[in-house]
Design goal:
This protein is an alpha/beta fold and 301 residues long. The chain folds into 3 domains: 2-109; 139-227, no CATH class; 245-300, no CATH class. It is 27% helix and 11% strand. The chain contains 9 helices and 6 strands, in the order αααααααααββββββ. It has a 5-stranded mixed beta barrel. This is Cytochrome c domain-containing protein.
Length: 301
Amino acid sequence: MGAKGAMLGILLAAGVASAQEVSFDDIRPILQARCVMCHSGEAAPLGLRLTSLDELLKGSANREVVKRGDPAGSELVRRLRGISQPRMPMTGPPFLGDEEIALFEAWISGGLKPGDQSASAKLAPAPLQRPSAGQPVTYAHVAPIFASRCVKCHSANGLMGSAPEGLLLNSYAGVFDRDERLRVVPGRSAASELVRRIRGQSRPQMPFDGPPFLNEEEIQLIVDWIDQGALDAEGRAAPSLAGSKVRLQGVLGPGWTLDSLPLVVGPGTRIDKSPREGDYVEVRGRLDGEGRVLVERIRRR
């Protein structure tokens, strides 16, 4: 935002932001970076699209989200501050900082000034980001996909209430929570329930509001991330997950395989409903130290 933004930062730090100076142009970069990944297109929660000033002013299917001159009564501000739940952006924490929220408050107090851009000028969600040549895929590359297609449900206060089956996809730690069972097996995308769900090998296919489901480019990026070790945003290795429970579905293949994924079936494996090659089955088991699936139970579905 240049010199104007620097001056505004000084005013905000002093708690005396000048509402007259703030326009939609000033909040546009925040919407672009933190909001339009979810609030765009046909899948926008409650129809709230934040990809233009006109759409923001239109509000959601339930209500307007900004009230001219009344930031405290504006649902957008209430969500950004966590007064109304779920707090936004859904990908937080981190949420917006106080200075960023103060920009929205100053814009609303100042009368929702449009700025230099046309009120209908569109903000496009950021394109899919892949690492530069020779660099690994990290959580930073796949997090925007989770944010735009998964987090609306898979968060603590999502559209379905609590996260379905306890799976949180709004943080790296949440992806690897294994209280219920593990969904991502570092180094082995074929053994990762997350991948099997977005491909439709495990049912129901995800995201739950599809079609459209994830496209091949999005799926491949997630597969590459997992196969390269499911590194965190800084490129650090995933935690050790040996002994974690897994639950997978798919088509039983020759030699105890699941859609070509080798399974370890032993004398202690419980086999129900006499599954045969070509049957759709459910597998429950645990991971060994090499990421192999040690099958505890397999049954025809």
